[in-house]
Fold this sequence. Notes:
With about 475 residues, the protein is an alpha/beta fold. The protein has a single domain, classed as Alkaline Phosphatase, subunit A. About 35% of the residues lie in helices and about 15% in strands. The chain is built from 12 helices and 17 strands. Strands 1, 4, 5, 6, 7, 8, 11, 12 and 15 form a 9-stranded mixed β-sheet that branches. It has a two-stranded antiparallel sheet with strand order 2-3. A two-stranded antiparallel sheet has the order 9-10. The longest helix is centred in the N-terminal third of the chain and has 31 residues, at about 15-45. The model is unreliable at about 1-45 (pLDDT under 50).
Amino acid sequence: MNPLIDHHNTAYSRRQFFRKSGAGLGMAALGSLLGKTGLASIASNPLPQIAPKAKRAIYISLIGAPSQMDLFDYKPHLSTRFKEDLNGWLKQQGERLTGMTSGQSAFPLAPSIFKFAQHGQSGAWVSELLPWHAKMVDDLCIIKSMHTDAINHEPANQLICTGSMQNGKASLGSWLSYGLGSMNEELPSFVVLHATHTSPYSNVQAISNRLWGSGYLPGKFSGVSLRSLGDPVLFLEDTPGITRETRRRMIDGLNSLNQRSFSAIGDPEIELRMQQYEMAFRMQASVPELTDLSGEQESTYQLYGEDSKKRGTFANSAMMARRLLERGVRFVQIFHRGWDQHGNLPRDLASQCKDVDQGCFGLIQDLKQRGMLEDTLVIWGGEFGRTVYCQGKLTETDYGRDHHPRCFTIWMAGGGIQGGRVYGETDEMSYNIVKDPVHIRDLHATILHALGLEHERLSYKFQGLDQRLTGVEPAKVIKDWFG
């Protein structure tokens, strides 16, 4: 410790004093005019907004990457090329191979065994695995031309959730919380749900809180994860003998001590700790009401399907997401794992689709019936696509697919998105994009745009750089998606 350096770092010049004091007095005056909610919004939303099309969003993250050519990217002519070896063709394409298929001597073409049909006024092709999706294609914008930079799960999931394959970056939900602020002080602005899956055979990718963490943003913008089994939040209930009044006095006492430390040191982590104590106290009252579904009508359960009555299922999580949005949560991310079908794809993909199909339909229709879909953005998809060639042994009824970053399919609905359309095209092999490519950065820029934020202006100073969700490489808003 050097006292001279410490003094230099903490001392204010006369100009700094008046600048900081003036800002503080200005915010105090503004707070008296706007009230508590208005001031909180200004404080956490330092950038000007564009006209928003959505107020809130739900992101359905299918971890493991569903096969685009077995669900939405219909390639019927490939059935005549069953087991054709693509080895030479792949070399011409400059294919990046994972360690799981790089040792294969042959790369047999594996056509989808599932039936497809056109649905809705858009005539979108949908697999027989998604019969409930087929009923709502006119609510969806199906985007078949997504591509990414990553070929393995961990970096690919970090890229689509945080905009970067590097650790320590802020997640999409954290950026939205930072840019838009909270609409409800009783619940976090960003909530994460983990839906269970039913297939006992699927490869289940491990995920971590890096995918919903705040990175270099203040910790209060991190996603708060609600558990699918047991208590939604650990230690939600007070210890027997501790009343709410006693707990309130305990927190007030802690806050008093922390405030003294904060005044002396100025460490923002101390302030964050106080905010977390307050949020935890409020959640002890708000979360039990949130998770009590006894008041839901039977018709709503029927809309989402019987699984919606089972705690932790995808259908139950989808209904919970709607309840969270109703209570002012800005962003809900539902993680559903088990989509990594390197083998036994027909069996495992069918099971995964059954988990989410009616739940997605119920969510979209429920939002629509309640007048919420028009200002709620819903996004559905994985982190990359799957290969046209088979990984491992290929038979007429069974195959697996490896990772494929060059093209994959997602869909979006609500929040100003024009339903009943298909955007982008892939080549005859569902291998390369031939029309309207969309990078992950473009997707992020468009999501921010829908919620009233400009991706080039939404930034946070860290390590001397203006950090952005979309980074420094070009990103564009896909305005064609909006009606």
